[in-house]
Amino acid sequence: MRRIAIYPGTFDPITNGHIDVIRRAKMLFDKVLVAVAISEEKRPLFSIETRVKMVQEAIADINGVEVEPFDSLLVTFAQFKNIHVMIRGLRAVSDFEYELQMGYANSSLWKELETVYLMPSLEHAFISSSVVRSILKHGGNVSHLVPHVIQPLLRKSLPCM
Rounded to two decimals, what is the model's pTM? Predict the structure, then answer.
């Protein structure tokens, strides 16, 4: 039996912290499905197509990792894919409270979904997509925060502000 996990998020954009968590998850699971949430209520900076493409490019060198967009409850998507383990990254104590609440909510919807929490390495612990977006909006350098392969796509896809 193959061990498969789902790693959901908006990935707006994907960061080095996300990649670190994906690599850690891949050490534990045979396959990791990176599920990119359309999440229009969060008003993402980048389109779903661009976010999926950025993730695809960023994980191209990691065998056993796939990417798909989704626009439903995560639990519904996981059930459809027959995936019983969800990966979530924890950077700080403040993440834990929110992630614990979401894990319990998801479990209340589908008891067969288990949440596994992984911490990024210390060098990536401060990185978040919102920090990257803020720096991008103000014309700052994010080359040390995001995978190098997506940097041209970031510049090309950045909406006019």
Answer: 0.94
